[in-house]
Amino acid sequence: MEKVKYLILGAGPAGLTVANRLKQKGEDSFLLLEKEKEAGGLCRSAEVDGAPLDIGGGHFLDVCRPEVNRFLFAFMPEEEWDMYERDSRISFDGDYIGHPFEANIWQMKPEKQREYLESIAEAGCNIGAQKPEGFVDWIYWKLGRRIAEDYMLPYNEKMFGSNLDELGTYWLEKLPNVSYEETKRSCVEKRAYGKQPGHARFYYPKKYGYGELWRRMQEAVKERTVTEAAVKRLDVRGHRVICADGSVYEGEKIITTVPWAEWEEIAGMPEELWQGVKRLKHSSTQIEYIPEKMDTKAHWIYYPEKEISYHRILVRHNFCPKGKGYWTETNKERVEQGSCPAESGIFRYMNEYAYPLNTVDKPQIMKKILGWARDREVYGLGRWGEHEHYNSDLVAERAMKLADELKR
Q1: What pLDDT score does 252 carry?
Q2: In which domain, by residue range, is 121 found?
Q3: How would you write 134-172 as a 3-class SS string?
Q4: How many angstroms separate the CA atoms of 284 and 256, rounded?
């Protein structure tokens, strides 16, 4: 049994950032365990049809966290990246409009613009109606009937599943109100108003997939990394983990980035919390590569139409210089239900853990789990350790802060 000061579980962006930050601070008593043959988690890339493809879906490095980017550029210098102005679109009415939907109805035909403006004017948030608690009712209240029914609800059903009311609304509070006046102004001046979406500007490697960054970070700590080490049981009282092959590792402090639902057992966890773990939900997605070149300048496109199996595509040839085609992202439920017919794809990959679901009771569940674990020097971190839909740059920021906290 190997004993270290810091035992890090999972070598995705969270685990790799913690490990490398600790190393930069002079720490060498740490060990990184990863169940796959290579690190990177959802940000891994594979060589497909002569160019990289990101098997976890679309992942990009946002420009909005300069300190994080400076840290990451130490492993993959800035000159190895291209910067892009985001071009994302929504399939609508046989054509495409810009994203977000409400900021770009000016791109529709005039009669459609009037219909959507009237619907926005009648939205609950614009007429002073009481805010509802259910997810579906909240979408109507926030966006108005037309945007809710034509885009937001069908898209979310395709992405997260048909039972939308099991989702809470707390994670949507950051969305700005859809202002009738601003929307009308955009229609008059024919340009978008309002808050920019995430990844308004982003980096993507010039020669590689996004996974190359994380591969290099793994290489920087390879002497302290064990791959094909699938952790199965966590003994909180003994500060040790047991892997599928029976190997045991012990750490004074344990940093876990793996999904809580993956644990077969967490020894010492109260039954109430263990039942909470079992109530956590996630969605799974299948990535499929289609070799056809698309006649568009968009980087990715959202598809709310129910008759189309996937909910979005990433147009690889518009941000990956050697890329030819595009890849689709489809919810596992739609694949299993036969909603996803065989395409002309030449590569498919199923991500069992793609998106944490923001169910109604999730905040209370995770607050209790993370608080209990931290009191015992076990730290949940990242998209799965915290069960939050974090992008990789935010994950890296949180990992850097945790490493700095632990090394004070």
Answers
A1: 97
A2: 101-189
A3: CHHHHHHHHHCHHHHHHHHHHHHHHHHCCCHHHECCHHH
A4: 20
Q: Which pTM value belongs to this model?
A: 0.94
Residue 330 included in any domain = no
pLDDT at 205: 96
Q: Are strands 30-33 and 2-9 parallel, antiparallel or unpaired?
A: parallel
**Domains identified in the chain, total number:** 2
The pLDDT tens digits of the residues spanning 238-275 come to: 999 999 999 999 999 999 999 999 999 999 999 999 99
In a domain, 339, yes or no: no
Tokens describing residue 91: 């399939």
Q: Is residue 390 in some structural domain?
A: yes
Angle of CA points 175, 179, 180, to nearest 5°: 150
DSSP letter string over 202-231? Answer: EEEESSS-THHHHHHHHHHTGGGEE-S--E
Report the distance separating Cα 299 and Cα 6, nearest Å: 39
Q: What is d(CA 285, CA 231) in angstroms, rounded to the nearest whole number?
A: 23
* Residue linked to tokens 């070598």: 11
Tell me the helices (H) and strands (E) count for the chain, helix number first.
Answer: 14, 20
What are 17-50's pLDDT values in tens digits? Answer: 999 999 999 999 999 999 999 999 999 999 999 9
Q: Are 393 and 68 in contact (CB under 8 A)?
A: yes
Sequence-ordered list of residues with C-beta below 8 angstroms from that of 200, at least 6 positions apart, any chain: 85, 86
pLDDT computed for residue 209 by the predictor: 94
Are the C-beta atoms of 54 and 43 separated by less than 8 Å?
A: yes
Per DSSP, helices labelled H in 166-302 are: 180-189, 211-220, 271-279
